[in-house]
Specification:
alpha+beta, 2 domains, six-stranded antiparallel beta barrel, five-stranded parallel sheet, 19 helices, binds flavin-adenine dinucleotide
């Protein structure tokens, strides 16, 4: 059996961890956060490979190392946590403070499966964990939780420091390629191909969005070939294409549309609604309200070939008042000046009305008022997965047991965004990645102590 040689220590260094130390004193030791485990001594003879050094994999590594397991984390990129760091660029939204029931409902069909893991490590526990790293958090006006400095880098630095102290070894530039002919884990490394065996393997390989940050979804084929049931990766929290006219695209592409209420009806006729802002792009629309509705919009397109997103461009106005105002005589003013002076609508909102309505409809006060309150936009396809914030689809939850071990592959566990759940932006994505990472780490511990190792799929 070929194993990694001593040159590995160099590979264990990553750029995020070599940055300036965040702490003036050392962060609390890792075992301050985990209950003592009576099997600690037994675990020191156990070795586990965690593949993928994003939030889910690192959390699993932390749980395992805290109980004395020898943990090797493998990451294909030259440094760890690239998507987490990217998430911090726009303000790292770690979790949300909304009431428990509303929070759980964000995970839609996956709610039931995720609930035990969120019970064990949900929004409050996650916040405390962040505080334990020496990072203060605050709650924004929308209820979203952010680190005080908004960025992910200080959190990641403190975390990596703590993981190293706990003995976790991180091997960057190691791309996992599946299993070799002897059933060993196969890696492409800077030193060439390598193979290695462990007592258990924990996969935390992410979804397929933003592949330039590391998670490219290449694992789907590897697991499917081993009989694992995977739902195709699809864009979640994505923009959508609209067949804009050339005139509209050129004139309004890049313009934000502020304060709109967007509504979509799902296949069961249930209305889903978001209040906020969207952005007109050269190809369609994107932004907060669109991401929030993207699961329903994507499903409508899958079923019907297109989805209708209704926009209320004047949320504070009653329809009757709009009709009254628009019906007043406009004298010599242009129609646009008339609409702007009576309703305040102008610019891209007026452009949207002209894009969707025929010229004669814009001139009819009742028709125009109805369109202002419910302008139907026809969305023809989601933007590609590579551009989306996150992925839908992944390893089907019923392909895993309650320890997050693959039923088809004893000894192989999965966590994070590679599992088949989706959620809107708002901190729900990271919360579930941390919660499933922790649950899978605990699942490995349970399995290691269950005496089932003989059945392991190496
Ligand atoms: C722009 C952007 C902003 C975001 N902002 C937020 C936010 O504010 N709040 C929030 O909750 N969520 C946010 N997210 C989503 C969040 O970052 C992800 O859901 C989360 O990082 C997923 O964690 P993960 O550990 O499952 O996977 P990842 O973070 O994707 O980590 C998986 C790791 O596995 C590695 N890997 C993959 N294949 C292999 C292989 N074959 N061999 C070795 N290594 C491999 C990858 O390189 C990667 O480092 C954002 C996402 C994006 C793109």
């Amino acid at each position: 059996m070929a194993t990694f040689g001593g040159g590995e220590a160099a590979g264990a260094v990553d750029s995020a961890s070599t940055g300036q130390a965040f702490y003036t004193s050392a962060p609390p030791a890792i075992d301050a956060h985990y209950p003592a485990c009576s099997d600690n001594n037994m675990n020191t003879h156990r070795s586990v490979a965690v593949i993928g050094a994003g939030p889910a994999g690192l959390m699993a590594a932390e749980v395992l190392a805290a109980q004395g397991v020898q943990v090797d984390v493998y990451e294909r990129m030259p440094s760890v946590g690239r998507k987490l760091l990217m998430a911090g660029r726009g303000g790292l939204n770690i979790t949300h403070t909304e009431p428990r029931d509303a929070f759980r409902a964000r995970y839609r069909e996956a709610r039931g499966a995720l609930e035990p893991m969120l019970n064990a490590f949900g929004a409050e526990a996650l916040r405390e964990w962040v505080h334990g790293l020496g990072i203060a958090t605050f709650v924004g006006t929308s209820g979203r939780v952010f680190p005080h400095e908004m960025k992910a880098a200080p959190l990641l630095r403190a975390w990596l420091h703590r993981l190293r102290e706990a003995g976790v070894k991180i091997h960057v530039r190691h791309r996992w390629r599946g299993w070799d002919g002897e059933g060993l884990l196969a890696f492409d490394t800077p030193q060439g191909k390598r193979a290695r065996a462990y007592d258990a393997v924990l996969l935390a390989l992410g979804g397929g969005s933003w592949p330039q940050l590391g998670s490219d979804g290449a694992w789907v084929e590897l697991l499917e070939a081993r009989g694992v049931d995977v739902d195709a990766l699809r864009p979640a929290n994505s923009g959508f294409d609209v067949d804009w006219s050339e005139h509209f695209r050129t004139r309004f592409g890049g313009n934000p549309v502020k304060s709109v209420v967007a509504t979509v009806r799902d296949a069961a006729g249930v209305r889903h609604q978001r209040h906020g802002e969207l952005v007109v792009t050269a190809t369609g629309i994107e932004g907060g309200v669109v991401y929030g509705l993207s699961a329903s919009l994507r499903e409508a397109i899958e079923q019907n070939g297109a989805a209708t997103l209704e926009l209320d461009l004047a949320p504070g106005w009653e329809l009757t008042r709009l009709i009254d105002e628009l019906s007043r005589p406009r004298g010599s003013r242009s129609l646009s000046s008339h609409v702007q002076s009576r309703t305040g609508l102008k610019g891209v909102k007026m452009g949207l009305l002209r894009e969707v309505l025929a010229a004669e409809e814009v001139a009819q006060p009742e028709r125009l008022a109805a369109a202002i309150k419910a302008l139907p936009l026809r969305l023809v396809r989601p933007r590609p997965l590579a551009e989306a914030i996150s992925s839908a689809g992944g390893v089907r939850l019923d392909a895993l047991d309650e320890r997050l071990m693959l039923r088809a592959m004893p000894g192989v566990f999965c966590a994070g965004e590679m599992l088949d759940w989706e959620a809107p932006t708002g901190g729900y994505l990271l919360t579930a990645c941390f919660a499933t990472g922790r649950a899978a780490g605990q699942g490995v511990l349970d399995w290691l102590s269950s005496g089932d190792l003989g059945a392991a799929f190496k």
